[in-house]
Amino acid sequence: MAILPLEEINNVRMHADIVEVISSYIPLMHKGKNYFGVCPFHEDHSPSMSVSAEKQIYKCFSCGAAGNVITFVQNYENVSFLEAVDILAKRYGITLSNAINIKQNDKNTRYYDMMDLAQKFFQNNLKTELGIQAREYLQQRGLDKNAIAEFGIGLTLTDRQMLYRLLKSKKYTEKEMDDVALVNTHDSPYDYFVNRIMFPLHDPNGHIVGFSGRVYYESEAAKYVNTRETIIFKKGQILFNYHRAKPFIRNEKAVILVEGYMDAIRLYINGVKNILAIMGTSLTKDQIVLLKKLNAKVVLCLDNDSAGQKAIYDIGQLLKKDNFEIEVIKLSGAKDPDEYILKNGIEAFQKNLKEPLKYFDFSLNYLKQNKNLEQAVDLVNYINDVLLDIAFEQDPLLIDVTLKKLATDYNLEYDMLKEKLQNITANKNNAEKTEFKVESEIALKKQVKNNTYQVACKKLLFYMINEAKYIRIYQDNLVFLDNLNFREIAKAIIYYYESNKTISMADFLTYASTNERFYPEVLDIINEGSEEQLDENVFMDYLNSIQKGNKQKTIKELKQSLKEELDKNKKIEIAMQIAELKKGSV
Q1: What is the reported pTM?
Q2: Per residue in 453-474, pLDDT tens?
Q3: SS3 letters for 276-304?
Q4: I need a surface site. Which of 351, 480, 493, 504 has the fewest CB within 10 A?
């Protein structure tokens, strides 16, 4: 990592209030002395991340993520530590010295460079005489030069080795070409994409990781061919246009989710820029995590066919479990947003956007599909589906209104519906408790693996990170920690304190982050002890437990030496040492 004066980093950390920063990314709820929110670093359905304004740290009780304001931004934005410092410095108007020198050290850099080269090559092909037909096709689809340039659209030609020859001339190996699915090198090398319009696909950080190739002429070939899963391309981990739309989404506090990338492109070039495409009809866990990071409501605008409407319902069910605010846009007279805008214009779409349907209302209507509510069986199935739906609702007023409406519309007993809903909710809660119990048992087993000595060492270091007096007690007692990482952390704590004449957990985390070897251990120490109240008597118990453990280890080693020693006088000497240790006189 590049060097930046620690004073500057700590200055940024002190100006960047952790509650203020994290609440700009995810909603936080004040409870007791801390704040709580849904953790963005794993699939979290209930607020399991605790944020301490007093200690200026965060901790997830479920996945173990922990750190200070800088590490939060680092992990949330998926940037380097110094880039996170830079982001916060700009946010708070702090000028950093020229000492900062962000060094790119991504193991996939060479792959990204190759994909960039391929895209430039495809773009150039589109500009040549051989690209006339493709350009005409794009023009017919309403994509002008600006749109083509904005989205990096290109073209592959009929020569099946054009890209291969270019990449080879740039010293890329055949294995590297095959690793990212640009060239098939198993037999005679040939380009994966031939005679197709090429749309680049980016990861959340803006790196090109794949392509989607579309035919633009009459052909029996598949309309679209996408890059297969590779070392850098995992379809379920990206959302089309994410890197481009992210600032607009945060500004609007809303993200419009569509199926295809042509839908996204059409909206974006017409001024609706808070748009993402899932490139299909399903949403993965990784994509939900990406959406969480945007801290925005989700507006679902998928295709008008039965598959698209089912996708809206299914995706809404997933998002509802993660407490998203969800709305739905239904476009009539067109199969998808792309076609709708071409037929009716962007103003008609924006009118629909201003009058969205709440997902709850959409789901009630959707559940009626293919049911004859005049028939008892269909009506019972519908009622059960609705009750299952509202079991996940948080608003008690909405639940009560829905139950009363069901009772009135279908001549049912309100109390009977309410009792049935309570049973469903109880079963749901029991299932969640069982899941939590399993997670807790796993965590407990993990903790048991740490013996008492290891736990005492971690707790001792946790106290030292929090308050200077525990550092002085540690030094006065000449404590020896039987673990190299623990010893290095203790030395780092002492060095930091003596250099700065003060210590705080948030600032020490910044300092520790420069040491890749023991930084994860520091996070673990903070994670395990972050809710513990400091007590000098308890600290002394930990210290005595460590001293006792050291003695026991020494006795064990001496006993082994006693077995192996042949010299009678030395055996007596070792036996006396063991006796003295057992008496506690040493």
Answers
A1: 0.70
A2: 888 888 889 999 988 999 999 8
A3: EECCCCCCCHHHHHHHHCCCCEEEECCCC
A4: 351
